[in-house]
Amino acid sequence: MSAAESLAPWPVLVVDDDPGVLEVTRMALEWVQVDGRRLSLALCKSATEARQRLTAQEYAVAIVDVVMESDRAGLDLVREMRGDRRHRLTQIVVRTGEPSSYPEAKVIEDFHISDYWPKAELRAARMRASVVGLVRGYVTARTLDAELHEKETLLREIHHRVNNNLQVLSSLLALQAKDVDELTRAKLEQTAGRVRSMALVHQHLYSLDSLASIDFAAYLRALARDVSSAVGHRTELRFEGDTVRLSVDRAIPAGLILNELLTNAVQHGRSEDGVARVVVTVAAEPGRVVVEVRDRGTGLHSIPPGRGLGWHLVQALTRQIRATLGQHTDDGLRVTVEIPLGEPPR
Predict the structure, then answer these.
(1) Final residue of a structural domain among 182, 211, 240
(2) In whole angstroms, what is the distance from residue 27 CA to residue 4 CA?
(3) Average of per-residue pLDDT values in the chain
């Protein structure tokens, strides 16, 4: 908060269609000071007038009557404020002359307000004490919000740097693969693909609002395109399913599992015309996400245990996130991964 801001009065919005109540509130609060700063009272006679004020300024405290233009005009205004990011930190008081019609506990719970004032019980001393506490609550909320924003910015930058470093590592592996024999080249390219699958998670986290989870379906679309491009075979990809979010703890190992399955499908699932036709399906079910990778190929029709590093990696990661793996070999290979959404893996 700047030095100029620290000298400015605390903005307080008072909304009530009763001129007498507005005047009493003004008289009770006009000389109140909080940490050396007075209050700046904006008095509104209707919810409509208050909306106009709210478009121009953020308020530390808003005191809102329930019954004005309608029986719920004040509550409608409060709901709008709580849905607007500009006013998410404002400490809101609901004031009503009909407490039996709007029970205190229900209003506090449903509208996320900070205090509840029945008009019949209102005294100047209580108003002053409550507003002082609410202004300090607003200051605390702003401080915590600023700290959270700073940490989110730092965490987003970390994801950006991790993504860049993993991309560099993938590129180095690809360059190294040019100077080795064919078998070693294949292994290096597989490793580069695994690194890219991890980098994609951090890339998605950097570009999204949430840093705790990613849109897993969107991630798999990008991963499937990347695998298809890296392998270099003629591929027809089709993606079906739901939009689901997956925590970072699960997204990275699940992405590595799907990287192996997609690589296998593109490399070995080609039909007689040489095209790998791969279908990826994501389904959100109660308590789990089910991902299916299906091809119509005539080549490799199973992934037997002990086949290689890729299969061992799939098994280890499946255990890590407590997932379930299944495969069917009717008309091509179909592999399903059931990922639970309970406690995060340890």
Answers:
(1) 211
(2) 27
(3) 80
Q: Which residue has the higher pLDDT, 119 or 230?
A: 119
Q: At what angle do helices 104-111 and 73-82 cross, to 10 degrees?
A: 30
C-alpha–C-alpha distance, residues 219 and 83, integer Å:
29
Give the predicted TM-score (pTM) of the model. Answer: 0.58
pLDDT digits (tens, 9 = 90+) for 150-178: 776 766 676 667 767 777 777 877 787 77
Question: Would residue 15 count as lying in a domain?
Answer: yes
Q: Which residue intervals of the chain are DSSP H helices?
A: 3-7, 19-29, 47-54, 73-82, 104-111, 124-176, 182-207, 216-231, 248-268, 309-320
Domain co-membership, 271 together with 332: yes
Model confidence pLDDT, tens digit, residues 3-30: 544 578 999 999 999 999 999 999 999 8
Nearest to 259 by CA among 319, 158, 337: 337
Which residues lie across from 63 on neighbouring strands? Answer: 14, 93
Residue 132 dihedral angles phi and psi, to the nearest 5°: -60, -45
Asked if residue 227 and residue 195 are part of one domain, the reply reads no
Domain that holds residue 95: 6-122
Phi and psi at 123, nearest 5°, equal: -130, 155
